[in-house]
Amino acid sequence: METLNREAGNIKIRVQNLRKVFHSRFRSPLLALDDVSFDVGEGEFCCIVGPSGCGKSTILRIVAGLATPTSGQVDISDNGGGKMLSAMVFQETSIFPWMNVWKNVAYGLQVRGESSSTIEKQVNYFLEVTGLSRFRDSFPHQLSGGMKQRVSVARAFAADPEVMLMDEPFGSLDEQNKYVLQEELLSIWKENRKTVVFITHSIDEAIKLGDVILVMSRQPGNIKESLEVRIPRQDRNVENLRSHPEFQQLFGQIWNSLKEEGVRV
Fold first, then answer.
1. What secondary structure, in 3-state letters, does the chain show?
2. In this predicted model, what pLDDT tens digit does every residue of 54-103 receive, in sequence order?
3. How confident is the model over 224-231, as a mean pLDDT?
4. Taking a C-beta distance cutoff of 8 angstroms, is the pair 183, 233 a contact?
5. Which of 182, 210, 214 is nearest to 195 (CA)?
6. Given a cut of 50, is residue 1 above it in pLDDT?
7. Domains in the chain: ranges and CATH
8. What pTM was computed for the model?
9. Could you give the strand order of the β-sheet that contains 71-76, starting from the edge strand earlier in sequence?
10. What is the residue-averaged pLDDT of the chain?
11. What distances in angstroms separate CA 10 from CA 6, 7, 195, 218, one per listed residue?
């Protein structure tokens, strides 16, 4: 497997020899992940692509502490300061239907016991940068799918975690909303340089967003390749990205690697 050179002190997430077996009373044990190992550097935007059912979401849930590995381990470097280690944005809308937009975005900060002034400042800032300020009093049933995902992203960043975990957050959106939210996400990320692990089925999206792209094998999932995106970020806009020579080379490399798995992406 191709790997990137990183200094040991700069590793934010270290996944080592991860293995996950699902057991059921009604079928044989299912080996979902087999010896998965990778590192994510501090402040790095890491995208994971792979065939459907290869275990991408399982990896993310284990990193988030929402699932337990059968063997192996995940270490997230804690910088101290009392911040939560990770926050997760799901593909499905996960905001609270009984709370308005402002209260949804404030939720993580309130749980952490932040002061009213800190909550007010953080929430108002992320409502502004995600274009939600005029919807602050709206409830989820009054919002479109794209707006609901904006709320999810704003809530996760407002909580100020050390690591952002995103499971196909734009997968169900139309192309126009997807492009807009990708740009908003990158704008927020460039300001605070959170460490991000982002799952996507879209090769285009992975190249647009990622510093590093991990390509997974089919089930049982493993890391097949680790690729660096060398396209300058100023060249990754909608108008220029697909015509960039590096894009075409990288897209072809990822696509051919996925085709070798013999299943659809």
1. CCCCCCCHHHEEEEEEEEEEEEEECCEEEEEEEEEEEEEEECCCEEEEECCCCCCHHHHHHHHHCCCCCCEEEEEECCCCCCCCCEEEECCCCCCCCCCCHHHHHHHHHHHCCCCHHHHHHHHHHHHHHCCCHHHCCCCHHHCCHHHHHHHHHHHHHHCCCCEEEEECCCCCCCHHHHHHHHHHHHHHHHHHCCEEEEECCCHHHHHHHCCEEEEECCCCECEEEEEECCCCHHHCCCCCHHHCHHHHHHHHHHHHHHHCCCCCC
2. 999 999 999 999 999 999 999 998 876 667 888 888 876 678 899 999 99
3. 94
4. no
5. 210
6. no
7. 8-85+161-259 (3.40.50.300), 91-150 (no CATH)
8. 0.88
9. 27-41, 11-24, 71-76
10. 87
11. 7, 5, 11, 30
pLDDT tens digits, one per residue of 166-198? 998 887 777 888 888 888 889 889 888 899 999
CA distances from 48 to 16, 19, 45, 265 (A): 16, 17, 10, 12
